[in-house]
From TrEMBL:
GO MF terms, alphabetically ordered: double-stranded DNA 3'-5' DNA exonuclease activity
Domain of life: Bacteria
Originating organism: Flavobacterium chungangensis
Domain Endonuclease/exonuclease/phosphatase residue range list: 4-248
Necessary cofactors: Mn(2+); Mg(2+)
Protein name in UniProt: Exodeoxyribonuclease III
Family classification: Belongs to the DNA repair enzymes AP/ExoA family.
Keywords: Hydrolase, Magnesium, Metal-binding
PROSITE patterns in the cross-refs: AP_NUCLEASE_F1_1, AP_NUCLEASE_F1_3, AP_NUCLEASE_F1_4
EC number: 3.1.11.2
Flavoprotein as UniProt keyword: no
Pfam families: Exo_endo_phos
SUPFAM superfamilies reported in the protein's UniProt record: DNase I-like
Leading EC class: hydrolase
Length: 258
């Protein structure tokens, strides 16, 4: 099974890019972030015509997450991250596909830091950690996938000294990611490529993609049941070079049957 995560940076504005990539790579499951579309404006017909079912949680102008599945049913579990009834931002959706619990998430950016946006990010991280611990306790296959807005280590960022005050690289943010992983999750990319420079995001400015001045902020965290079935993982870096593309590239894993 091939499972991908992709911050599409506007599902309608980048629809041609998304459909081209789906046709080229044919992943079985896709987690999308940053739809930037209200619930009623998700391009369901185009997604269906491409061969995918979908569940999504939209939000006008910002955020938004979706999960697509090819030739498989999607059973929605929740479309909110527990822990804050007043949180109206569309950043989390959790489903069951083929016996695997898959959570698609778009963790807050947190900038400018310090400030209320960083505080929201840290509280969101705590809620995610609490939910992740519950999912692990179920002893069932679970995948946490999406844009975590965290570079876990210096290897994950071009010129890390330039990011020391950024909310994506602050010590407390990296610590939260490390503590989350330490619950028993496996970082798919790093488990296969512990020492390689691998990025998933390149800014639109300063010719970042051509210079490979990137960040690794899109991650797969795998429960033990999934981690032992991990076959391969990679980034479809070339998609970032397409015309009118997202500033993120798709990331994917392949797992053996569970």
């Amino acid at each position: 099974m091939k499972i991908a995560t992709y911050n599409v940076n506007g599902v309608n504005g980048r629809l041609n890019v998304l459909l081209r990539w789906l046709e080229e790579t044919a992943p079985d499951v896709v987690c999308l972030q940053e739809l930037k579309a209200p619930q009623g404006k998700f391009p369901l017909k185009a997604i269906n015509d491409a061969g995918y079912n979908a569940v999504w949680h939209g939000q006008k102008q910002w955020n938004g997450v979706a999960i697509l599945a090819r030739n498989m049913e999607i059973e929605e579990i929740t479309r909110t991250l527990p822990g804050d009834e007043d949180d109206s931002q569309s950043r989390y959706i959790e489903v069951l596909i083929g016996g695997i619990v898959i959570a698609c998430l778009y963790l807050p950016n947190g900038n400018p830091a310090p400030g209320p946006k960083l505080e929201y990010k840290m509280l969101w991280f705590k809620r995610l950690a609490k939910r992740a611990a519950i999912l692990l306790s179920l002893n069932t296959p679970v995948i946490l996938a999406g844009d975590f807005n965290v570079m876990p280590a210096e290897l994950d960022v071009y010129k890390p000294e330039r990011w020391v005050k950024d909310a994506l690289f602050l010590p407390e943010v990296r610590k939260s990611f490390a503590e989350l992983a330490a619950q028993g999750w496996t970082d798919a990319i790093r488990s296969l490529y512990p020492d390689e420079v691998i990025y998933t995001f390149w800014d639109y400015f300063r010719n970042a993609y051509t210079r490979n001045a990137g960040l690794r902020i899109d991650h797969f965290l795998l429960s033990p049941q999934v981690a032992k079935k991990l076959k391969s993982a990679s980034v479809d870096r070339h998609v970032r070079g397409w015309e009118k593309t997202s500033d993120h590239a798709p990331v994917w894993i392949e797992i053996d049957p569970l």
